[in-house]
Amino acid sequence: MEKLKKGLVPRLFIAFAVSAFVALGSAGAVFAGTVETAVAAAPVQATAASAAEERDQIFMLVALAVVNKDWQTTNGAGSRGYNIGSVLVDANNNVLWWARNCVNCNSNGTQHGEVRLMTQYQQATRNFSLKGYTIYTSLEPCAMCGGMMCMQSVARTVFAQKDPDFGDGIQRLALDSTKLGPPPAGYSPYPRTLPSVPSTLAFYGAINDAYTQWRNAGNTGLTKFLATPIAQKLYAAATNQLMTYQVQFPENQQVYVNALTFYRKIPTCPTGKICCDVPQTSPKKVKAKAQEIPATSSK
To answer: Cα 13 from chain centroid?
Structure first.
């Protein structure tokens, strides 16, 4: 019985999610009622089936906590960017870099979290490619970010929320449509692709259910949804899970400790400030100048 408790998402995750609807007010009454039911019914996270799956959960929680640490309550002018973020992990299970979406503070639509994650890390460490690395991102990669992952030979990416509009970019690169005939009718898979898989955290089901209900209530815009009180509560609950995580597989204890230490070193943006380009310490101790890394900025 004790083992079954380990690795589970705290029930506080569900409580935080439900309480978020109170903040929506009368304008979101329909949304609140339907989403509250969906989130309240979200299953408690089952134990990880393997040590590898547990590591995926730990690293994803770090990515979600990175976003929560500099939560943006609006997507408009005066904001850093969207509430989307990611972390880079090497083949030895070390979290090396983090980034958040910074499209607004840079007035640059290319400044997605994953793009910043890859370019900043590679510039700081002088790594030509990211072969063997894994990217954990809060939102499924778009075509731009997914394409860069393919070109940089990223081994794998794991995402915590499905993007029904701009997702499946990586999957399309892997699609073999040659049966339809030669181009432009059909194409062979792109030379480089990578697995793009959903997280096994309970967060995945909860955030997707909440977004579906939000859209069904007549709202539009995934990035707009990511600035709502319910989204913030879900991210806060994920951060709480990271801080209180109970490791199930002993070999992952140090992995968790290192990941938590990495997260705790990420600076907090002062209240009322927009933290766009924040310096990060290079894992290879490369002398890097103030980089466009997120501490309270990036996707």
So the answer is: 17
At 79-136, the pLDDT tens digits run 999 999 999 999 999 999 999 999 999 999 999 999 999 999 999 999 999 999 999 9
CA dihedral of residues 41, 44, 45, 46 (deg, nearest 10): -120
Q: Residue 197 phi/psi, 5° resolution? A: -125, 150
In 3D space, the residue among 41, 44, 43, 36 whose CA is nearest the CA of residue 18 turns out to be: 36
Classify the C-alpha dihedral 179-182-186-188 as positive or negative.
positive
CB proximity list for 24: less than 8 A, separation 6 or greater? 31, 32, 228, 229, 230
CA distances from 151 to 143, 144, 146, 171 (A): 12, 11, 9, 14
- At a CB cut-off of 8 Å and minimum separation 6, what does 209 contact? 35, 38, 39, 42
Closest CA to 112 of 77, 147, 158: 147
Predicted confidence (pLDDT) per residue in 32-64, tens digit: 554 554 444 444 445 799 999 999 999 999 999
Q: Assess contact for 211 and 72: CB atoms under 8 A.
A: no
Distance CA 121, CA 124 (A): 5
In degrees, rounded to 5, the angle at the alpha carbon of residue 241 between the alpha carbons of residues 37 and 169 is 75
pLDDT the model gives residue 46:
52
| Angstrom distances, CA of residue 243 to CA of 2, 16, 53, 248, 256 | 19, 15, 18, 15, 10
| DSSP letter string, 219-257 | ---HHHHTTSHHHHHHHHHHHHHHHT---SSGGGHHHHH
Q: Which whole-number Å values give the CA distances from 97 to 67, 237, 239, 262, in the listed order?
A: 13, 22, 18, 9
Average pLDDT of the segment spanning 155-178: 94
Give the DSSP letter string of 91-103: TTS-EEEEEEB-T
Q: What is residue 36's predicted lDDT score, i.e. its pLDDT? A: 52
Q: Whole-angstrom Cα distance, residue 54 to residue 228?
A: 29
